[in-house]
Amino acid sequence: MGDSFIMIIAIMVAVVIMFVFPLMTFAGRTDDISQLTAQSAVTEFADQARSIGKITPESYNQLVQTLTATGNTYDVEIEVKVLDENPGKKTVQVEREKIGENVYYSIFTAQILETISPDTNSEDDAKPYLLKEGDMVVVKVKNVSPTLYQQLASWFNIYTISADAGGIVTATGKA
Amino acid sequence: MKLQHLSIIFVIIILPISLVLSSYVDSRVKTLNLQISYDTKLYNSTYDAIKAFQLNTINSGTSNLADSKLRDIEASINSFYNSMQNNFSMNGYNKEALQNHVPALVYTLYDGYYMYSPYENTVNDTGEYVGEGTGEYVSDVKPYVYYSCRYVQGTTDVVIGYTLDSYVTIKGRAGGEFVNLRGYLLSDVKNVTGGNIQYRGVDIEKEQLTERLLLNEARGYENVPYRKVNGVKYYYYDNGNGIADENDFYRIENGSVKNTRVIPMTSGIQETGATDYYERAKDFIVNNASAQEYYQDAIELKNNIIRLGLDNLKVGNAVDERGNPIDWNVANTDIKIFEELKNTGSDSKSRIEDETSQFNSHRMDVIKYTIEKNLSVAIANFNKVSTATSEFGMPKLRDYEWDKLTQNIGMISFLQGLNIGGKLYNGYTVVTNNKNEEYVAEESIYMETTSDNTFHRAQDADLENYNESDILGGYFNIDYERKTIDIVTQEADGTEIVKSQYYYPREATGCYHSIIAQEDVQDFKLKDWLTTGNAKQKNIAKRYYTALARERQGLYRVEEAF
Predict the structure, then answer these.
(1) Is-contact B505 A71, C-beta < 8 A?
(2) What is the mean pLDDT of residues B295-321?
(3) d(Cα B424, Cα B84) in Å, to the nearest integer?
């Protein structure tokens, strides 16, 4: 009775060592690569938007494609902080370049997607979303479907693959 | 063999593989993350540098003059290194260490570029030539390089200087004479009876422009008529007697108001004999004919090009400094550079000033060629100077980056040879700027409306909802930026106090659609409105093209300063 019990335990340990451990190791590395891909795709997307002053449908599609190629599903969040120069202008005492006296309002993913990736039912064509010098753009991605590693390691690890990038827009975009 | 033994052998094999693989992937991830973070740091530092250049040029009335521009460039380079030092200090690099890894900084300006890179100084402290190969290497701004190209065809031998728009300078021999032409290339401009000038069938008229200025503290802010000539705005400010006299003309130089002489000129000849001298000077400023002059100059340039046979020059006639033909990598080298000048509004062919024109694509090729040629040499030569162990080479710029550079003032920065673990960093950044006094791009003209005192982008869909009389006109985007002016006031005891005051040359606020949010901006060409638009659209287009012409005519140009 005792020997059979130890045998079962030994088989279970062997299964864990021979199958689950290698699987977890390789799944973990795959996640590292996915994380890296996500980070570089997001940085490239944000830097391009900042330097040309617009978020183009092509660059958004490219971002989504690169992310999808990792085999995971991601939630892409884009936030544009639009600089409103008018309040600073109405009184000449405030410093426009000073931090804290600029007024920003935010535009979020859904509003941006209406322009760059409209519904197929919509009559509008996909157009670039224009930004101006001084605006800020922030892009965040987060995986929503659990990866193999996350499923295997869910009982001791709750991290997700996520990446973000952003910064100030350096040139006003052309239509 | 027992199952347990099998497991242990398996673990002995797989564990090292997994550990090595894991550490390899980790190091690659770190390297790439470091590369991404360096890219962003370089980008941010370059932006800081171009922003410093922008702020300096906006606030300096003499920023266009060559030595002043050099000063602005040097200040901008300092900003770049300061910002780099701040950004990279966490990685253990100081300014000197970074300088060893920056092979070149390039400022692409309106008609040429400055390059900051080390070069061999073959002259010693006492001014003696010490010979090549023995001089000291110093980092500094090299002489200005124009976007120019030489063309040889039969007896015609000219150098054409290009710019970010359709302005060209042509120097050399053509049609049996020495030529020195300059001006904007425009198709479909003509003189019509009655002395008017038409661009694409629309009459270009004189304008009455004013700026809100505080010239006299007692009188407060007033709308003062002005005209911009060769980069300087001249103001007519009546001192209260209602008659134009010598005390009524001003200019603002680096924030301080200066009394100035204004001399009316006709075709470059000074009109000093006239008795109504000051009245004419007043008329020169108040009734601004800069836009008309812009188009008139374009007509003259076009006529001269055709008269001298320069319209036969082909892309394939371009030669390098040794006289060898330049390989442009284009399918057809028989394209005539100025052929599109002759296209009129009635044909469907592209006009020379359009983005889609053959002239424009050749212009971009020339700019790219002149930058690439010098830059690749400068970067390769950096190997002699740098103490870094890496091999420096010019990276290949992407097409969209060249597009940006050939349409805007910009800066290219390079950073190479930093160790990022497993490989050496080799990065570059292109940052452009479209808010400066160097160049009037088509997007730099904003339309102002009077009913709500706002300014809009010219392609704002909302503009059509305004009445024709509400549209005041077009203005340069710089005029909506804050400037400083020094006001001198006298105290009771007679001492003079200088007070600096901020002001906006134009008071209007940005339209929330097209300026703040950049939405509702239509992607059609405004030019089409000139010919096919309805009355309202035509009026907008006419005012826009008048403003564009006026601002371009008012830019500082070296050739016109003498």
Answers:
(1) no
(2) 91
(3) 18
Beta strand B145-153 with B112-121: parallel, antiparallel or unpaired? Answer: antiparallel
> Distance between CA B300 and CA B162 in Å, rounded?
18
Query: Which residues of chain B neighbour A97 with C-beta distances below 8 Å?
Result: 55
Residues of A in contact with B518 (CB under 8 A): 130-132, 172-173
Query: What secondary structure letter does DSSP report for A16?
Result: I
pLDDT band at A153 (very low <50, low <70, confident <90, very high): confident
Asked whether the beta carbons of B482 and B504 are under 8 A apart, the reply is yes
Whose tokens are 């039912």? That residue is A121
Q: How far is A144 from chain B (nearest CA, A)?
A: 22
Select the more confidently predicted residue: B393 or B550. B550
Grade residue B560 by pLDDT with cuts at 50, 70 and 90.
low
Instruction: Name the phi and psi angles at B517, rounded to 5.
Output: -95, -10
**Has residue B379 got a pLDDT over 60?**
yes
**Inter-chain residue contact B443 with A85, CB threshold 8 Å:** no
CA distance B30 to chain A (A): 9
Compute the nearest-CA separation of A31 from chain B (Å).
11
- For residue A169, the chain B residue with the least C-alpha distance is B47
| pLDDT of the residue at B552 | 92
Measured distance CA(A38)–CA(A44) in Å, rounded: 10
Inter-chain residue contact B433 with A133, CB threshold 8 Å: yes
Instruction: Please give, rounded to a whole number of angstroms, the shortest distance from the CA of A18 to a CA of chain B.
Output: 7
| Residues B260-270: tens digit of each pLDDT | 776 666 666 77
Whether the predicted pLDDT of A95 surpasses 50: yes
SS3 B330: coil
- The residue count for chain A: 175
Phi, then psi, of B158 in degrees rounded to 5: -130, 155
Q: Which residue of A has its CA nearest to B433?
A: A171
The whole-angstrom separation of Cα B7 and Cα B533 is 82
Question: And the tokens for A107?
Answer: 């535009």
Chain B residues inside the 8 Å CB shell of A93: 502
Per-residue tokens: B553? 């005519």
- Which residues does A91 contact at the CB level (< 8 Å), separation at least 6? none
A-B contacts (CB, under 8 Å): 116
**Nearest residue to B526 (alpha-carbon basis) of B451, B445, B467, B420:** B445
pTM of the predicted model, to two decimals? 0.86
Listed residue (B393, B433, B439, B431) closest to B412, CA to CA: B431
Q: Average the pLDDT over B376-391 and give the result.
A: 80
**Spatial distance between the Cα atoms of B428 and B418, rounded to a whole number of angstroms:** 13
Of chain B, the percentage scoring pLDDT greater than 90 comes to 24
Residues of B in contact with A164 (CB under 8 A): none
Length of chain B: 562
Residue B465 DSSP symbol: G
Residue of B551, B533, B549 whose CA lies nearest to B541: B533
Asked if A132 lies within 8 A of B518 by C-beta distance, the reply is yes
Residue among B268, B231, B269 nearest B252 (CA): B231
Pairing of strands B232-236, B249-253: antiparallel
Of A28, A143, A107, the C-alpha closest to B519 is: A107
Written as six digits, the tokens of B309 are 């046979």
Residue written as token pair 């950096």: B382
pLDDT of A29 higher than 90: no
Q: Contact A21/B14, CB-based, under 8 Å?
A: yes
Does the beta-carbon distance from A90 to B509 stay under 8 Å?
Answer: yes
Contacts with B400 from chain A: Cβ below 8 Å: 52
List CB contacts (< 8 A) between B503 and chain A.
Answer: 92
Find which of A20, A47, A86, A113 to mutate to test the B interface (most B CBs within 10 Å of its CB).
A86
Min CA distance, B156 vs chain A (Å)?
39
CA B413 to chain centre: 17
d(CA A48, CA B43): 11
